[in-house]
Amino acid sequence: MTSQRAAVFHGGRDIRVETLPIPEPGPGEVLIRVGAAGICGSDVLAFRGLGPWQHSADKPGRDGHELAGEVAALGAGVTGLTVGQRVAVEPKHLINCGGCPPCTAGRVHLCRRRGYVGDTHVTSEGFAEYDLCPAGRAHPLPDHVSLAAGAILDCYACGVHTYNLVESPPGSTAVILGAGTMGLTMGQVARSNGLKVLLTGMTRESLDLAVKAGAADEVALVGVDDVAAAAAEFTQGRGADLVVDAVAVPEVTLQQSVELVTPGGHVCVLGVYPSPPRLEPHLAYVKEVSLHWSNSYAPPEYVTALDLLASRSVNADALITHRYPLDRIVEAFVAAEEKDRSLAMKVLIQP
Ligand SMILES: [Zn+2]
Ligand SMILES: [Zn+2]
């Protein structure tokens, strides 16, 4: 067999499943038979024609950076992996040069040449039957970790990185704005580190899931509950030690984060703002808020996320609500886009 089915992104909502050659693993590479690939919030932004990661009719592209599967073939010189082994794949857009100042400091996700191999920009192509990755980016999964859970390790690694940026001692209070996958994975990571979490969301269902999945101690329903009052009660009037903006609503959530945080506390933006957010700086000044932006993660944080999954400290399977075959990828994107209607949390493509 030399051909495969693969999704090609022609810009916005134009996604076509096409027949393409199965790539051959070069030296140091591994061919992965994709078992599951998650639709990321960034993928949905592009589907809606928003955000920085768009394809176009002139320049179609491939996507799918949250993936896990089985090793299908090994390139020359690859050791330590075997055909048939189950692996999670660290995304290729985080490949780095290894030599620039951020790379030397271990912050390889801030590499100026991030996602480049030579002059070619690379990205994982998990919305397909097969994908290639450098051997060092394929991480064997323990038997009890499902491929579906392995596929969303990327989301957990973002949570681990956010936690590392703002490291708060056990017992600290965290308010997480947003009950999507990033909010829930962040909540699980925070709670596994001993933080107490109040999580806000737009639907009762997503908040019920947050509690069931161990992502929150308490929840507040936006538009029904008084979030400020709930946060005040949760923090005994002090304000939250940490607020994570995992939803990035331009008119609302950055300002709200500053309002909810305790004086001297940390706000970390984990969502992706599609346009400039509203922020009245005076309150941030008065409180001397430390404002962080969380962008991806470094490889050790991916490994920490895998350890959290392997030790059952976080529950990834609980977050996976929808699964679609590759041929129905557009339907899957619509479910991921219209979460209030579909009640989707994480949507997976299983090619
Ligand atoms: Zn992602
Ligand atoms: Zn670099």
TrEMBL record:
UniProt domain Enoyl reductase (ER): residue ranges: 12-345
Name under which the protein is recorded: Alcohol dehydrogenase
Keywords, sorted A to Z: Metal-binding, Oxidoreductase, Zinc
Coiled-coil regions, chain positions: none
Keyword field contains Phosphoprotein: no
Family: Belongs to the zinc-containing alcohol dehydrogenase family.
Domain of life: Bacteria
Annotated GO MF terms: oxidoreductase activity; zinc ion binding
Cofactors, names only: Zn(2+)
